[in-house]
Structure formats: structure tokens, C-alpha cells
Write a structure and sequence with these properties.
CATH architecture of the largest domain: Alpha-Beta Complex
CATH topology of the largest domain: 2-enoyl-CoA Hydratase, Chain A, domain 1
Strand content: 25-35%
Number of domains: 2
Oligomer: single chain
CATH superfamily of the largest domain: 2-enoyl-CoA Hydratase, Chain A, domain 1
CATH class of the largest domain: Alpha Beta
Strand order of the largest sheet: 10-11-12-13-17-16
Mean pLDDT: 91
Length: 335
């Protein structure tokens, strides 16, 4: 497999932080994962760099390892190639163009590594069974081990088992092409925002319900928590994306409750701290405020320079539809 990295081509592009991309193309061969790791160490692309894949497949275990590297680097994935367009000219930047491509067989596992996964209408995405052609006992055993690795990888990437079911239903010598709507339905294609994942957690003598989402604006979490000594609290984890100073210093901090007439102003009681690439925001809640959050259709946090400021930093409300039972049960049992 071949790797190409493109950086901003002008100072203007670099100033606005865009136009980074990686192209992966060609057959996936044994050892390509090691070469890709060395490639990343040399290029040092920033988090959320888009990776474009154009491959008909190859070695499955290598594809899984490349997918894991992509997930660990917080990259997004696309199908095709993204290249400099030297046929066009602009005074301040170098135009790019997207060339449609194919993501087939083992290459689909690389694609699943993206935190955000995009699909263009001209793209080809195809799956089939992963197996060894030689039916010897040793190869049958290796095939079973490989199947277990694929299943574990798909689960770790947050993809439902339906993807594996569709793949195994297609004969090993044929490719089943999947359309965009089906890929979206089974969670393979996310676009610019993933669904919110809600879960109940317990840590350091506290219980909390956590909503988590990836988007173009970062990896974010919102939590409704409770401690025996302190009661209910709100906690947000915001990927700062270089805005740590503003997120900590802007004076207006509000819990944004969707469909509610009033936000919950926590400006005077919010504790804020930067930890790595994140800014954490904590605030103690009154029982009625916790009730509003638990019964909401979505909640997030907005941090602004002033109450009348039109722009805000923070987290747009996370939909609670698939976490409603958890939130209400949590609140009703602890109020």
C-alpha cells in the first residue's frame, strides 16, 4: 500500500488550519501497518486529518492494524483520493480535487478506523467473507482466529454486528456493494457527527449518566452525576481544539437545555480546568435543575464572552432519545 501526505501549501491555508490530508491506495500487503506507523511518525499529521482510501483489499490482519492506528490518531476516513489540482490556480491557496475511488474487501476495515466516516455518492464500498482458500486444518483454524479478530475489531470501532453479518453472507469470491443509505443505517457511515452514546458509569464514589459524541467540532461528553455528600452535579468534557483560554476565561457559562425556555446559568458556580486537549466544566445542581436535564430532549453547554454574544463555544445539545430511560431512572432513584 502507498501513502501520501499533503500539508497546507500557503501561509493563508496554514493560518486557517486546513488542507491536511492523507491518501492510502493500492493493495494492502503484509507489513504495511509498520510502514504506515513509520510514515505517521515522520509526517506528524494533526488530529482529525482526513484519510482517503482507494484500495481493493489485501491482508486482513494488516488492515485491522492500520484501522487501529487511524482510530488512535483521531483521523476521519473517506473513499477515493484527495489531490492537488494544479490545473486550477488561485492567488492565495492551491485548489484540491476529490477523485472517486473504491474501498473493497479488507480495505473496508481500514475505513472503519475513522472516528468520523464519510461516503461520497460516486464511491464504491464492497464486502465479502474473509477466509483462507486452502481448506487444510491449519488454515481452517487460522480462519476461525481471524474471524474472531475481525469481530472484536468491529465491536471496538463501535460498529454493530450487522456489518459482519452482511459481510459473511457474501461469498468469498464475490463483492457485495453497499449503498449509502444502508451504510448509514448500520452505523458504518457517520458523516460529520456520530450518534450520541449514553451509558451509566460509577467511579470514585460517584454515579453518573454520560452522553458521548464525536463531531467536526471535537470529541465531547456531557454528564448528569450524583454523589452522596454533594447531590446532583453537571460535568462537561470539551475538546478544546486550541480554544482552551476562551473556554476557561469567557464569563458566561450555561447548560443549554433543548426545547427549554431558559438555559441553566452556572456562570458563578462553574469550575473549569484544562486537562490535555480537553477543558472540563463542573457545577453543582439544584434538584429542580437536575430534573430539567433528566427530562430534556437534549442538553449541552455554551460558553460566551457576554450574554448577548451570538457565538458560543462548548457543546451543542446532545439528543437524549436513546438515553431517556437511563436519565429518568437515575434522577428518580436519587432525588
Amino acid at each position: 500500500m502507498q501513502f501520501e501526505y499533503t500539508e497546507p501549501q500557503s501561509e493563508l491555508e496554514r493560518m486557517f488550519g486546513g488542507h491536511y490530508s492523507i491518501n492510502l491506495f493500492g493493495p494492502i500487503k503484509l507489513g504495511d501497518d509498520i510502514r504506515f506507523q513509520e510514515f505517521l511518525a515522520q509526517c506528524a499529521p494533526p488530529p482529525r486529518t482526513p484519510v482517503y482510501i482507494n484500495s481493493t483489499g489485501g491482508d486482513v490482519e494488516t488492515a485491522i492494524k492500520i484501522g487501529q492506528l487511524i482510530r488512535g490518531e483521531w483521523f476521519s476516513t473517506h473513499i477515493g483520493s484527495f489531490v492537488l489540482d494544479h490545473d486550477r490556480h488561485h492567488e492565495h491557496y492551491v485548489p484540491r480535487k476529490h477523485i472517486p475511488g473504491r474501498c473493497l474487501s479488507a480495505a473496508t476495515l481500514i475505513y472503519l478506523g475513522g472516528r468520523l466516516r464519510y461516503f461520497d455518492n460516486d464511491a464504491k464500498f464492497g464486502v465479502h467473507q474473509f477466509s483462507f482458500k486452502d481448506p487444510a486444518p491449519d488454515h481452517v483454524g487460522r480462519s476461525q482466529v481471524l474471524s474472531a479478530k475481525i469481530a472484536r475489531f468491529i465491536e471496538d470501532m463501535g460498529i454493530t454486528s450487522e456489518f459482519l453479518n452482511i459481510s459473511t453472507a457474501a461469498p468469498g469470491d464475490k463483492i457485495k456493494l453497499l449503498e449509502a443509505d444502508e451504510l448509514e443505517r448500520i452505523g458504518v457511515v457517520t458523516g460529520g457527527e456520530t450518534d450520541v452514546t449514553w451509558s451509566m458509569q460509577a467511579r470514585n464514589n460517584t454515579l453518573y449518566i454520560r452522553g458521548e459524541r464525536d463531531s467536526l467540532y471535537g470529541h465531547h461528553k456531557v454528564m448528569l452525576g450524583h454523589t452522596r455528600s454533594g447531590g446532583f452535579y453537571f460535568h462537561a468534557v470539551i475538546e478544546a481544539q486550541g480554544r482552551e483560554d476562551e473556554l476557561i476565561s469567557f464569563p458566561v457559562v450555561e447548560i443549554n437545555v433543548e426545547a427549554s425556555s431558559n438555559n441553566i446559568d452556572i456562570s458563578e458556580r462553574a469550575f473549569r480546568a484544562a486537562v490535555g486537549i480537553y477543558v472540563n466544566v463542573f457545577a453543582k445542581l439544584e434538584h429542580n435543575e437536575a430534573a430539567v436535564i433528566a427530562n430534556s430532549i437534549g442538553f449541552g453547554i455554551q460558553i460566551r464572552a457576554a450574554h448577548d454574544a451570538g457565538m458560543f463555544l462548548g457543546i451543542a445539545p446532545m439528543k437524549t432519545d436513546n438515553g431517556k430511560d437511563q436519565l429518568l431512572s437515575f434522577y428518580n432513584n436519587l432525588r
